[in-house]
């Protein structure tokens, strides 16, 4: 595949005179330039935690961003895709493998991808694959699987037509589900989504509606259509007779819905909502390998909570949570990070975060959000560190956060400009002073404001009482009337009442 031209990146480059670049542009550039050099991930264990397209997509992402794991990831993906009918993915994986070997043969560094000018008939990729005992493209497998898939599609389509002619709703629903499963196995996501959605008109119970929603959610996640995911999560949760099933079955579906909602909220950068959804997942019923593993739930929920929760929320909903504790047991490093943060051991916490950074960048769903989440965690740590003090030595703060004084000063300055820290910086002596607030004057201001509000409310109450006593009311007019407004009707009243209203 030829490389994408570099011109659009040059057009989006930041002008030298521009101080602050838009956040979205920065995020996109970081995602495009993402290369992971030193991962400690056990790729086999990582791949075994998911199934189907989820495993393939995750392995392809690892191959794209990590040169050192590229060959292993592609080999595992090719071996796995051959157990499915996904011919297009098989061809894509072999193309990536050939592009990789073509780039190596041309002397292109692994992180820069394959050279775009080499012909497709180059012999180096095949020879290298044979030398390293890597899978070679099997045209016979492609033709056989394509024929089998076509025959199965024809049979399923014929069965569905027969079901429709018999007008049996349950059979029609199962026919649409079978077609959707077949399209999903072949990697045709758009047709799979259509088939699963069409089954809705033939659902005869709440459980069938929920099952349809779960199928649509799964395909929508693969398509990264996050608004669709949230919409169908809401539809599943609002199904009226969903509670008819057993408690275990309901917990299983509830956990799936919360995990899907959390993933969608994470991708739309609503980190606190994502954390709340992941924290509601039940460990004993977290069985959704087509999308997420329990370790993924621990990582996504833990990081989002760390970035957005205050100390009380973190202690109550994460550290003391009997359910989420079981998830954190799968990720002991993340558990230690959360505990260190809660204990205000920020240097150790940030050091552990840096150690797991490369592994997080290999996860296709959390990788684009690592930098924003890490920034939020650092900012929250700085705010909590300074909150008890009237002044702080920035040299000691820099030591506590493993930063240079200059870098820390820039971070604190940004927090002050954003209004997250009420302080001022003595740049010469490197001391941070909290803004002194006059408690006496602020108390007087609050008291006066409360008095003004009380006076206003009292006047309104007296006015209403006087109007009711004088039988003064506003009569609404019919909608079809051409007159706009309302009629004010005044009943005869005493002169005392009139004088009262006039004074008000």
TrEMBL record:
It holds the Pfam family PCI. GO terms for cellular component: COP9 signalosome; cytoplasm. It is found in: Cytoplasm; Nucleus. The keyword Cytoplasm applies. Keywords: Cytoplasm, Nucleus, Signalosome. PANTHER family: 26S PROTESOME SUBUNIT 6 (PTHR14145), COP9 SIGNALOSOME COMPLEX SUBUNIT 1 (PTHR14145:SF2). This is PCI domain-containing protein. The keyword Nucleus applies. Residues 277-439 form the PCI domain. Its main location: cytoplasm. It comes from Glossina pallidipes. Belongs to the CSN1 family.
